[in-house]
Amino acid sequence: MHQIVMAKLRLLSLERKRTSNGAEKNIANKTHRSLMEFREKLLKFKFHIIFAFVFSLLTVALVTYSPGFLTVLSYFWPLFLSTALFLAAVFFFARTSDLPTSSTISSDGSGVKLAAEGILDYVVGGQEEETLLDSFTKLD
């Protein structure tokens, strides 16, 4: 009787090994299939991943190697100051200068537009060649 029980236990253990080996193979096949699907999805988003990686590297490099705000401010403070003073002067002269009266400027602002066009024509066109030649001939 003891031998029969031992034989049955051996058979059961062998069956468990066979089914577990089959189950392990089945799990391995499923894992392999899911890994292949994952690789296919990765290849589908290959450029997105590369772009995100490069962007993150550039961001880290920029934060790590860029100068601080106070360093930039201390380097460019003359430029910032001169720009601020120039803008203050423009606003000051715009407020204090005598503008033409409302009788000379129409309500649609065409007088201001004509004045601005005249100034722009002078700046863009510069002096005419004849006046330049006349001024050079007068020097002789």
TrEMBL record:
UniProt entry keywords in alphabetical sequence: Membrane, Transmembrane, Transmembrane helix
Transmembrane portions of the chain: 45-63, 75-94
Keyword Transmembrane helix part of the UniProt annotation: yes
Protein name per the record: Transmembrane protein
Organism expressing this protein natively: Brassica oleracea var. oleracea
